[in-house]
C-alpha cells in the first residue's frame, strides 16, 4: 500500500527526517520492509506548516517515485517546519495523478492514509452520496483515501477529530456490509490542524497495518546520551511512522490495534478506537 | 477552451493530418485563431482505431503541451488509422491530469468536447447522481466533458447517439436552470463507435463555438486537380475540426448552429439538434 | 525565448512577486508582451536562498507550463526569501527536460538566461572543449544557457563575475565567427552568489532582448505614497526583469544596450559591457 | 541497472510479449529477479519498426515507472511489429529524463544497454572527445549508454556492427585503464537496423550481467505441442532478454560470457567477442 511519516516538534529541515535516517521514508519508497508492497513508487507528497502568517499548510505532491525526485530533495534541504507530513504511494489501481497523492488538505487540515476500503470501486457512489454536498465540490481525485477525508469532514472532523473518524469508519463498514464485504476497512491515518496531531490504527479484521510512535525525547536522551540530534530537539518532539526509521534501540513503540494517539501541547494520549454510527 | 479534430476515411499516418497542414492542430496548441484562448497547452490526447482484431480504440493522453511532446510525434509518424480523434486542452480550472484529457473512451466508443458547463462546480454533484450507478464507477476524472459523456452513455448513447446527446443536453440545461444559470451549456462534440462519426454544435445561448466539416473529396478534386493528397484518399474521407486546417479555398464548411452531422458509409447527413427531456 | 525575474531585498513570500502583480511572471508564461514568443510553456524554475545555515540555494525546476503548476504555487505561497530567481522557458528546440530549465546552480551561484547562441548546435562541441575538464563533469543538460554558465565558471565567475561573463561572451563570439556566423550571441543574464546580483544585457548585433530594473524604493515611495507594499520593503529592495510587472508609473527603467548592473550592499552600479578575449 | 527485451519475427501486438507472459518485462519493472536492483522504475522506452513506408523506427520513451504507465499499455495493445525493443531503467545517478531513456535511435538504428561504464563521470569528457564531431551534435542525454552508442557509430556501426562495438569497448577500456580503473566496462547490448539484430554480452571483469536468447520455435513446438502461441509464429521468431520471461522449460539459453549473437534471415550465429583497438 503506502508508507507515511508525521513529525511535530522543534522546527527542523525536512531532510533531517526524510532523507538522513537509515531506512528513511525515501529509502522506504524503494525498499519498504513492513508494507504489503516493497515498492512505493506511484507518487508522493509532503505537507508542511510554514511561516506564522500563512494559515494553511503547503502541500507539494507529484507523480513518479520519491527516490529520484530532485525537487523533493531541494525542498527538504531548504524548508524548516515544526509540523509536517510525508507520504509515498503504492497505487492499488486508481490513477497515478497528483490529485490522488497524499496528504490531502482542507483549510488548515491535512490527512494521509495507508490501507484501503475493500472493493472501493463498488462502494464509491454510495460513499460519495454521504459526503456533504458543499464539500463534495472540492473533491478532485478518485481514491478511497480522499473519500474517507471528505466523509470525516462531513461528520465533524474540524470540531471532533476522533469522533468524526469513528463515524467515517462506521459509515464505511456499514456500507461495506450492505455489499456483503466481510472486512471493509483497513487504515492507518494521520490528521492534523497544525497544532495537534492524531494517528489512528484500525481495521475491520483486527489485523491492521503497522504503525509506530517515537519514544519521548527526554527518555531517549537518557538511553542515548551521546546522540547530538536528541540534544537539538525539544521534549515535545514526536514522530508517527508506518515503519521505524533507523535502528535506535528503544526509540519506537507500536500503536496498539484499534487505537489512536493524540500528540498535543501537554501530555500526549493513547486511546481506544471504535467505529460509530454516523 | 480546447481545439479538436476528427478524421475518418482512407487510412493515413496520423501526422499527415496532425502535423503537416499549415495551421495544423499541433500549431493550434500554441496559436489558435478562433478559440477563447490562443494557447491550448494543458494536455492533449489522440485516440485511434487500429488493427482489425482489436475491439476498442487506443487512447494516448498526456499532460503538458502537445507542441513539445516527442511521443505524440513518434506515434503520429508511425501509426496509420482510418478513424482517429485528436484533442488539445486549455483547462478552465480543473486539474491538469491524464484522466481529464480527451478523448474519453468507453468500450468501442470515443468522445471529445470543446466548451463547458457553466458553473459546473456547483452542478457537479447533481449531474453525478444522474449517471447510471454502474457507469459511475468508471469515471476517473473531474471534468464536465467526462460527465457529459457518462450522462450520454446513461441515456443510451450506444443505441441512439443523437437522442442520447439530446437527453444529456436537456438534463444539463434543466439542472442549470434550477441553479438560476441562464446559459448552462456550450458544446462542440465528436462521438464515434469506430464505424460512424457524429459531430454536434450547440449552446444554450445560440452562440456556439466554431465547428467545420470538410468538403467532399470528389468536389475538392475538381477545385484543386493538382493536389496530390486528394488523389490518395477516398471520396468518403472526411474531417470535422474546431477550426480549419490550411488555407485550401472551398475546403471547409461551417456546421450550422444547433446542428449535428453524421459521417457514415453512404450519404452523410446534417440535421437539426434540440435538447430533449431525459 | 524566455522571461525571467530576479529579486533581492526584504524577505517576502515568493508569491508576492511571482503571482500577485498584474502582468506577473506567471501571467507572462501565457501572455508575454515583449518576447519573441508570447508563450513560455516549456518548463520553469525558481531558485531561492533560504535559512541562514544552508549554504547553497534551493532550485526547483519542472517541465510543463508554470501557469498550471500547483507545486510552484504552493512553494510560492509558503517560502520567504531575500534573494530569488524565477524563469519561464520557451524552448527553441532543445529537449524540454528538468536539466534544461533555469536557473542553473553551482555551489552558492545561480545563473539564468534569455536569448541564445546562434547555431549553437554547430558550435556546441567547440564550446564544450573550452569548459574546464573538472567543471565539464557537472554539466547535465543540453542548452546553450548552461554551456554559457560553465564557460563563465571556467573563466573565473566566482572571483570576477563581470570579467568572466565578458570572457565567456568573447569566446562565444570568436567561435561563432570561425563558423561564419555574423551575430553569435544574444543574452540577458542574471547571476548571483546570494549576496550580490548582476544583470547583463548584450547582443553581438546591438539589438538585445529587453531588460528592466526597478526604481529605488525610496524614490517610488515619494511617487506613490499610498502603496502599502512599498512601506513594507527596504530601500535596498530591487528587481531585475525581462519585462515590467504591473503598471506602476516610474517603477521601471530599461537597462541600456551593452551594459550590466550590480545590485549590492551600498550603492548599486550600472556599467558598460564589452566581450573580452578569454 | 536495467532490464531489456528485443523481439524479431512474426508481427505481433507488443503486449503479447511485454505484458502477457508471466514475469513479463513490465512485471520486472517492479520485481526483477536477476538484476542488481529489483526495481527498474526510472523511465522506460519502446522502439518499433512500423509500416513499410516509414524508414526509421518509432521510439516512445517516458520518465516514471513502466508498471503504471497507461500510454505504454495503450500502444502495446494496438501496435503490431515484426521487430521491437523495450527497456526499463534503473538509474545509477544520471538524471531521470526522456533523453536518458533507451532505446536510443540514429536513422534506422536502435541501441539499448544494461550495465555501465565504471566511474563514467570521470571518463565522460575523454569519451565525448572521441565521438565524431558531426555525430556529437546529435547527443542529447547524459548517460554512458548513449555515449557508447555514439562511439560505436563513430567507429562504423552502420557498416560493421560487431567490429564497431568491439572498437567502442576497446576505447572505453583503454580510457578506463588510463584512469586506473580495473574493470571499466559492463554491458549487455542490443543493436538493430530493422533487418538484423545483434546481442552482446561482455564485461572487463568476465562477470557479465545475465543475457538469454530464446530457443528456435520449431524445437519449442516439439517440446510443447499444446502451446497455441507457438503455432502462430514463424520458425525465425526470436527473443533476446535480460532475464527469462515465463517458465517454459527449454525456452531460454544463456548467452555465453564474452559473446555476441546475430539474429538474421537464414542461420543465426553466436560468436566470441573481444574488444579491439579503435
TrEMBL record, chains A, B, C, D:
Keyword Thylakoid belongs to the record: no
Coiled-coil positions: none
Any one Gene Ontology molecular-function term assigned to this protein's record: glycosyltransferase activity
The enzyme's E.C. designation: 2.4.2.-
PROSITE patterns for this protein: GATASE_TYPE_2
EC top class, as a word: transferase
Domain Glutamine amidotransferase type-2: 2-274
Keywords (A to Z) from UniProt: Glutamine amidotransferase, Glycosyltransferase, Transferase
Pfam families: GATase_4 (PF13230)
Protein name: Class II glutamine amidotransferase
Species of the source: Streptomyces vulcanius
Amino acid at each position: 500500500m503506502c508508507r507515511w511519516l508525521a513529525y511535530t516538534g522543534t522546527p527542523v529541515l525536512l531532510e533531517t527526517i526524510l532523507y538522513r535516517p537509515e531506512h528513511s521514508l525515501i529509502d522506504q519508497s524503494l525498499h519498504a520492509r513492513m508494507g504489503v508492497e516493497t515498492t512505493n513508487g506511484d507518487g508522493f507528497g509532503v505537507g508542511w506548516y510554514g511561516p506564522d502568517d500563512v494559515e494553511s499548510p503547503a502541500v507539494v505532491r507529484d507523480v513518479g517515485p520519491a527516490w529520484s525526485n530532485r525537487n523533493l530533495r531541494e525542498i527538504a534541504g531548504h524548508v524548516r517546519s515544526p509540523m509536517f507530513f510525508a507520504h509515498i504511494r503504492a497505487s492499488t489501481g486508481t490513477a497515478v495523478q497528483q490529485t490522488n497523492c497524499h496528504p490531502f488538505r482542507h483549510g488548515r487540515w491535512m490527512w494521509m492514509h495507508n490501507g484501503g476500503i475493500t472493493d472501493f470501486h463498488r462502494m464509491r457512489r454510495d460513499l460519495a452520496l454521504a459526503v456533504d454536498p458543499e464539500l463534495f465540490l472540492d473533491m478532485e481525485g478518485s481514491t478511497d483515501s480522499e473519500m474517507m477525508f471528505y466523509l470525516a469532514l462531513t461528520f465533524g472532523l474540524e470540531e471532533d477529530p476522533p469522533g468524526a473518524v469513528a463515524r467515517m469508519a462506521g459509515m464505511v463498514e456499514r456500507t461495506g456490509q450492505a455489499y456483503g464485504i466481510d472486512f471493509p476497512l483497513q487504515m492507518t491515518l494521520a490528521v492534523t490542524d497544525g497544532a495537534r496531531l492524531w494517528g489512528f490504527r484500525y481495521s475491520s479484521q483486527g489485523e491492521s497495518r503497522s504503525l509506530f510512535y517515537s519514544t519521548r525525547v527526554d527518555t531517549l536522551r537518557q538511553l542515548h546520551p551521546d546522540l547530538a540530534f536528541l540534544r537539538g530537539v525539544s521534549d515535545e518532539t514526536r514522530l508517527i511512522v508506518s515503519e521505524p526509521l533507523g535502528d535506535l534501540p528503544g526509540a519506537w513503540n507500536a500503536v496498539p490495534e484499534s487505537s489512536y494517539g493524540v500528540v498535543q501541547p501537554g501530555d500526549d494520549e493513547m486511546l481506544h478506537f471504535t467505529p460509530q454510527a454516523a
